[in-house]
């Protein structure tokens, strides 16, 4: 019963927002009904009809006032006032298309640049890696007198894996190779990476379909097997769950990578076993392997570096001809993938943030000037009974609509910037690939854009603002903002294309 009453009350209140005429007609009918009932009761007591009518009206009170009070109890007054304010604000903005367009485009340029750069920064420095306990993953490099960072020889890698106790797993992989693949749809270049049997175990990922290859399949002379990416599986095998008989370039497909997996220089299509001959396993001069390891829980980078220094020192004493001055360098996965460009990203983000700040200041300036010209209008509305809170709510609604329009334009511009960045070359690893504008970034940029505009009505209403006390100056017009954003995009492009 209570739920039914709540539903009826909610329906009446919501209907009142969009049926004002019907609501007034219903209230008038209800007032007339109660007045007639009171008049009939007085007539039953013996009063004449004319006297009963007058007495009933005196007892009933002011019908118009009672009608308004009844309507007020049937509706959401605050929500109705908000809708009225929105309609009035849209009419006001439509009467000044030049001002509305200039303010919205100015905001949009600032938001678009900020969202695009922040998306890039989020993908590289903030977004968690798609691996469990990614903070335990480290990349290992070799160093010598000739190179600060170099690949690892197979013999050194085997000694590291056998002697290190701070790692739960250690795996080797190679750089990507672009291999031509012919199919019924034509020829294409696919990205192939060679990895050993521990690679996926180190990263802690599980196949979406099938399995990983094992140690026997990584031996020379074993049947050729491969694991394919989810995108490759959907493009060439239409996402078929049956992998029996599936082959790619002579390699039998045994597994499909999970969605969102990314590791290496760029998106990889095919992973095949890293086959190392017995002769290569004894080589300490052929630097061909890249190494990734997973630290044991509770082990720090400092502890791992200490143990690796001990191991490389022992190897230098055992093999002085090849391992003298050789050391192992450990880098956390995030630092390895983004450490060299961290400063660049923060500088770009700071620059885009300044663009957004300048855009907001200019829009605030335009709103203040517009408010100065509306002083007479506000004074007339106040003299007619509008309270300061009511005027402030109206101005806030207008500013919010303007900020919302600027946010929509900013999202469109950010999508254009995203398309540009998406087609630019990655900086060095696939993690720098942009996969889409981040949803919560959109909301944050819209919120930031709204704040300066929402402060303007308070400045106008409080008397803080006066034209003669104006301290904000229009320092950047929309054309110069376009030039600033263009230079930032070109800077991002040059960074993305740098080796």
Features:
alpha+beta, elongated, 4-stranded antiparallel beta sheet, 499 residues
Number of beta strands: 11
The radius of gyration over CA amounts to 36 Å
Low-confidence stretches: 425-499
Oligomer: single chain
Shape: elongated
Average pLDDT level = 76
Task: Report the total helices.
Answer: 18
Range of strand content: 5-15%
What sequence of helices (H) and strands (E) makes up the elements? Answer: HHHHHHEHEEEHEEHEEEHEHHEHHHHHH
**In percent, how helical is the residue content?**
55-70%
**Total domains:** 3
Q: How many strands, which pairing sense, and closed or not: the largest β-sheet?
A: 7 strands, mixed
> What is the SS-derived class?
alpha+beta
> Gap between N and C termini, in Å?
71 Å
Would you summarize the structure shown here?
The protein has helices at residues 2-18, 20-44, 49-60, 63-74, 77-95, 97-126, 154-163, 199-203, 230-237, 278-281, 301-318, 320-323, 333-338, 342-373, 375-383, 388-423, 439-462, 478-497, and strands spanning 137-143, 167-173, 177-183, 186-195, 209-210, 225-228, 247-248, 251-256, 270-273, 290-295, 327-332.
């Amino acid at each position: 019963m209570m739920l039914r009453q709540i539903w009826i009350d909610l329906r009446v209140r919501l209907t009142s927002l969009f049926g004002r005429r019907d609501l007034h007609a219903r209230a008038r009918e209800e007032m007339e009904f109660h007045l007639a009932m009171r008049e009939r009761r007085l007539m039953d007591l013996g009063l004449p009809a004319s006297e009963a009518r007058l007495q009933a009206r005196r007892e009933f009170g002011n019908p118009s006032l009672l009608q308004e009070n009844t309507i007020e109890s049937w509706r959401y007054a605050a929500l109705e006032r908000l809708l009225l304010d929105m309609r009035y604000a849209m009419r006001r903005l439509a009467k000044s298309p030049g001002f509305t367009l200039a303010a919205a485009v100015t905001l949009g340029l600032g938001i678009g640049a900020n969202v695009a750069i922040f998306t890039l920064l989020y993908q590289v420095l903030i977004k968690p890696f798609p691996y469990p306990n990614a903070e335990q993953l480290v990349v290992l490099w070799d160093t010598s007198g000739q190179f600060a960072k170099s690949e690892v020889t197979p013999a050194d890698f085997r000694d590291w894996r056998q002697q290190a106790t701070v790692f739960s797993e250690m795996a080797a992989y190679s750089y990507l190779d672009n291999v031509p693949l012919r199919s019924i749809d034509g020829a294409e270049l696919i990205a192939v990476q060679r990895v050993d049997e521990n690679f996926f175990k180190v990263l802690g990922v599980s196949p979406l379909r099938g399995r990983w290859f094992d140690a026997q399949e990584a031996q020379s002379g074993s049947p050729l097997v491969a694991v394919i990416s989810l995108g490759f599986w959907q493009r060439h095998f239409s996402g078929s769950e049956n992998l029996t008989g599936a082959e790619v370039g002579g390699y039998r497909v045994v597994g499909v990578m999970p969605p969102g997996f990314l590791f290496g220089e760029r998106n990889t299509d095919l992973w095949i076993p890293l086959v190392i001959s017995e002769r290569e396993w004894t080589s300490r001069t052929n630097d061909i392997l890249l190494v990734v390891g997973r630290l044991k829980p509770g082990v720090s980078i400092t502890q791992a570096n200490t143990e690796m220094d001990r191991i490389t020192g022992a190897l230098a004493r055992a093999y002085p001809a090849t391992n003298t001055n050789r050391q192992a360098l450990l880098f956390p996965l995030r630092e390895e993938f983004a450490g060299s460009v961290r400063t660049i990203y923060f500088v770009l983000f700071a620059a885009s943030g300044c663009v957004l700040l300048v855009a907001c200041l200019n829009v605030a300036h335009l709103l203040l000037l517009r408010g100065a010209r509306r002083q007479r209008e506000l004074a007339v509305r106040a003299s007619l009974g509008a309270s300061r809170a009511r005027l402030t709510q109206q101005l806030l609604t207008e500013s919010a609509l303007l900020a919302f329009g600027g946010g929509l334009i900013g999202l469109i511009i950010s999508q254009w910037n995203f398309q540009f960045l998406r087609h630019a070359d990655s900086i060095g690893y696939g993690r720098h690939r942009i996969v889409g504008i981040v949803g919560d970034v959109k909301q944050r940029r819209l919120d930031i854009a709204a704040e300066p505009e929402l402060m303007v009505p308070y400045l106008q209403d409080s008397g803080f603002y006066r034209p003669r006390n104006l301290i904000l100056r229009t320092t950047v017009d929309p054309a110069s903002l376009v030039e600033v954003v263009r230079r930032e995009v070109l800077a991002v492009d040059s960074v993305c294309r740098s080796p």
